[in-house]
Amino acid sequence: MDQKPRMRNGLDRARHAIFFEVILLFLSVIVLTGLLNQPAIHMGGFGIIMAFIAMVWNYIYNWIFDHVWVYLKYPLYPRGLKLRIFHAMSFELGLMVIAIPFTMVWMGFSFVQALELDIAFTIAVLIYTVIFNYAYDMIFPVPQVI
Asked: How far apart are CA 72 and CA 63, in angstroms?
């Protein structure tokens, strides 16, 4: 009998998204406030809205990613570094579609300015994402089968 691999449940996905975004929000507000010479409250508001958007996208993206992986009959876990890098990059590309227009409106940036900020931020977040997800898998492992 084929055993279906166990996926993370909804509560685990929510915990993942919340931890990811809270830590990222804290770090990004500190850094962006200084780099962009913007008030912390302005950057905090921007960060909170972007964190909410990213959390929703994170939940949807990871649900789709896992189901595609199961459909293609690839093992879900463990996820090696190469897969984590692919996972993080494809997540961030999807998020950019939302982030650039939002950044243009909130920050009053041109498309090019918003794109430059998003590319720089995305590079930093890609590194953070790989490290965070690798650590999360180690701290909160998923059993292979039940």
From this structure: 14
Sorted by sequence, the CB contacts under 8 Å of residue 93 that are 6+ apart come out as none
Give the total number of structural domains in the chain. 1
pTM of the model: 0.66
Assess if residue 66 is contained within a domain: yes
| Helix runs in 37-139, H state only | 40-71, 81-107, 111-139
The residues near 10 (Cβ < 8 Å, ≥ 6 apart) are none
Alpha-carbon Rg for the chain in angstroms: 17
User: What is the domain extent for residue 92?
Assistant: 10-139
**Tens of pLDDT along 69-87?**
889 887 777 778 888 888 8
Burial class (CB in 10 A: 0-12, 13-18, 19+), 98: middle
